[in-house]
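Shipment paperwork, digital attachment
Item: protein structure file
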Amino acid sequence: MTTKKINPNSKDYPRLLKEIYDPPTPLYVLGNLKPKNELMIAVVGSRKPTEYAKELIPKLIKGLVKHKFTIVSGLALGIDTLVHEETLKHGGKTIAVLGSGLKNIYPKANIDLARSILQKGGAILSEYSPTTEPRPYHFPKRNRIISGLSLGTVVIEAAKRSGSLITARMALEQNREVFAIPGSILSLNSKGTNQLIQEGAKLVTSVKDIIEEFK
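Attachment content:
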């Protein structure tokens, strides 16, 4: 599969991503990225999901796929992985945004998942040249692409200091919707999501709460 290199002035560049303050220039693409597909939503969360998250993800993703959303996430271990897997399981399209080059899939444990995303009509994206190694500072920066591609960002579980909260705040800066799944006040994994709700994120109790924002 050939890697495409596109810039904001290209007809193949996603319109929503082009609208953000600092769109990636260039954007490297593997797979099927449809520039006219604007029904995208980001779903992100903890690298160490609880059983609560594991139980709700299949229901949430099944509903989003049923309503023809393309699911965007970051291919990280934990919730990102579950989100991509459930999307494929339900016959949906998913996009993974990397903090490394496309020839350096990270984490390596998800190389097979990356292949499945491509084989089933999805795409893998990065603003880094194909052989770039993953670096810690790449990941907060790539989060603006996850939120920038999407109409909104859903945060499932997030601790008080979480990359998912960075994605949510970037979504707000980009004038996109932010949704949060409430959790136990006793759970460290829900501190961040409950805080987002306090700050004005839409509380999600079912997929209907997300869908109705885009009718």
